[in-house]
Design brief:
Layout (H helix, E strand, L loop, with lengths): L8 H19 L6 H8 L5 H5 L3 H26 L10 H9 L5 H15 L3 H25 L8 H23 L8 H17 L14
Length: 217
C-alpha cells in the first residue's frame, strides 16, 4: 500500500511559483516554461501545467506570489518601525532595500522587472502588479510618517511627495542592483541619502505639489 503523503495543493502552488520566480530571474521571461518549472521545482513533468493551464496563468500566479513576499518584507519594517522606547529606527526600511541587492532577494528583484515588462502586454498581469504596488505604496507612506520627525503632523500632500520621490529613487536603485551595480551598499548610506531627499522636499516652497499632476506651477 502506497502511504506517501499527497502534496498539499497550496504548498505545491507556492513551490511552483517560487521556482518560476527563480527562472524569471535566471533566464528572463523568454526562458520560462511549464516544463522548466517542473524541473526547477523537482516535480514530475506535467505538474506545473496541471496547476497553471497556460503560461499567462503561470506568470500571474508568480506575480501574486512575488507581491506576497514583497509585502511581507515591508510589513516587517512597518511592524518594527514604531520604536522600542528609544525612538524609531530609520535603517529598517533601508535594510530591506539593501537586502534586495543580494540573494535571495535579488532574484525577486530581477523577476519583478521581468514581470513588469510582460505586464505591458497582459492587462490582467498589469492589474495584479498595480494592486501590489498600491498596497506597497500605502505601507511605504505609513512607514515614512513613523520615521519622519513629527511625521504625523505632515500634510497628506507632503507625505505623498515624500513617498513618490523616495519610491522613485528606490526603484532606480533596485534597477541598478539588477545590473550588479551596488552604488549604495549599506543601509546607513541609504538612510543618509533618503534623509537628504526628504530635507530637500520639506524645504521646498512647492512641497505638497511636487509630484501632483502637472507639477508645481
Amino acid at each position: 500500500m502506497d502511504k506517501r503523503r499527497k502534496p498539499n495543493p497550496t504548498e505545491r502552488r507556492r513551490d511552483l511559483c517560487d521556482a518560476a520566480i527563480q527562472l524569471l530571474a535566471d533566464d528572463g521571461a523568454k526562458g520560462l516554461s511549464h516544463l522548466k518549472v517542473d524541473r526547477k521545482a523537482g516535480v514530475p513533468d506535467g505538474t506545473t501545467s496541471f496547476y497553471f493551464r497556460t503560461r499567462s496563468a503561470l506568470l500571474r500566479a508568480a506575480a501574486e506570489r512575488l507581491a506576497e513576499l514583497d509585502l511581507a518584507s515591508l510589513q516587517s519594517v512597518a511592524d518594527g518601525s514604531g520604536g522600542d522606547g528609544e525612538g524609531p529606527t530609520p535603517s529598517r526600511l533601508s535594510q530591506v532595500v539593501i537586502q534586495a541587492g543580494g540573494e535571495p532577494q535579488l532574484s525577486r528583484t530581477k523577476a519583478r522587472y521581468e514581470l513588469t515588462m510582460q505586464a505591458t502586454r497582459d492587462p490582467a498581469l498589469a492589474a495584479i502588479l498595480q494592486q501590489a504596488m498600491e498596497g506597497f505604496t500605502k505601507l511605504h507612506r505609513e512607514i515614512l510618517v513613523r520615521l519622519m520627525p513629527r511625521g504625523a503632523e505632515l500634510e497628506p500632500a507632503v507625505v505623498e511627495d515624500l513617498s513618490n520621490v523616495t519610491l522613485t529613487f528606490i526603484n532606480g536603485l533596485l534597477l541598478r542592483f539588477t545590473h550588479d551595480d551596488r552604488i549604495i551598499d549599506s543601509p546607513e548610506r541609504l538612510d543618509a541619502i533618503l534623509a537628504a531627499i526628504a530635507t530637500g522636499i520639506l524645504k521646498s516652497p512647492d512641497k505638497g505639489r511636487l509630484t501632483e499632476t502637472g507639477g508645481p506651477g
